[in-house]
Amino acid sequence: MKRHSNKEDKVCRSDAGTYADYRSRLSGIVEKIVAGCDDTKCYAHIDYEQLPSQAAVIEILNKLRAVLFPGYFNSEKLDPVNLNYHVGRTISELFDMLSDQISRSIRHDCFKYDLACSECAERGYMAALSLLESIPALQDILAKDIIAAYEGDPAASSYDEIIFSYPGMFAITVHRIARRLHTLGVPLLPRMMSEYVHGETGIDIHPGAAIGERFVIDHGTGVVIGETAQIGSSVRIYQGVTLGALSVPKGKIEEMKGRKRHPTIEDEVIIYAGATILGGDTVIGARSVIGGNVWITESVPPDTTVMLETPNQIYRTKKAKI
User: pTM to 2 decimals?
Assistant: First the structure.
C-alpha cells in the first residue's frame, strides 16, 4: 500500500482543520436565524400546530385525478376485476389525507386570527366526505368540458389526448376541485391547489371564480381569472386572457373585500388571445365574440363582436446588392 508523504499529510490535516474552522461558525449563524424568526422580523410558523403541506396537496390532487379519470393517472394497471379495489383504496387514502389537511387549514385560521374553537377535526371529516361525495358530479361536468374542447379543436385527435396533455383541461380539473372546497368554507387549501396548477400550466384561476359547464381554455398560458368572476356555459377563452379587477385605490383594500370586482361572462362567449376584461360591473353578453388584444371596462350587449381596427402593416423588401 502506498503511504502518503509528509507533505501530503500536512495538506490533508490543514484541509481538515480549515473545514472544521468554517463549520464551527454555523452554530452562530443558526442562533441568529432562530433569534430573528418572529412575526416582527420575518414570516415564520413555529408552533405545535402544523400548517397544511404543499407536498400532501399535490399528492391529493394526483389521487383525485386518478379517481376522476380511472385508468389515466394510475401507476398500476386497472381492469374491470380490480377497479373496485383500487378505487376503494384510493378513496380511503384520500379521506384520511383530505380530512387531515382541511383540519390543519381550519386550525391555522383559528390560531392565526384567535377565533373561537370550531371543531376543526370534525369539520375536516365533513368537508372531506362532502368533496368525495361530489366526485360523480365532478366527473359529469368534466366530461362536458372534455367534449367541448374536442368539438372546438381540430388539432385534438382524441379525448385521451385532451385528458392527458391539455394544460387547460388540467387547470379546469383542479379548479373544479378547489372550487368545491372553497364553497365548503375551507380556508387556504383551495388556494394552495390553484397556485400549484398555476405554476404547472401558467393558468391562474382563483378558486372563488364560478365557472359553468363546457368551459374550454385553449392553449392557456397567461390566462388569469379573478376571484369574483362569473362565467356561464359553453364559454371558450384563449391564451393571455385576463378577467380581472380594476386597480383598487390605496387604503381601500379592506373595503373592497367581499365585493364583486371581476367581470361576468354570459353563455357561449368566445374571448380571443390577449383580451383584457376588467371590473365587477362589466358584463359580456351571451354569444358575443371578443377579439384579440382588446381592452374592455364596460359591458357589452349580447350578440356583439368587439375587435380592434386592422393595423396598417408595412412591408419592406430588401434591395438586392449589385
Answer: 0.85
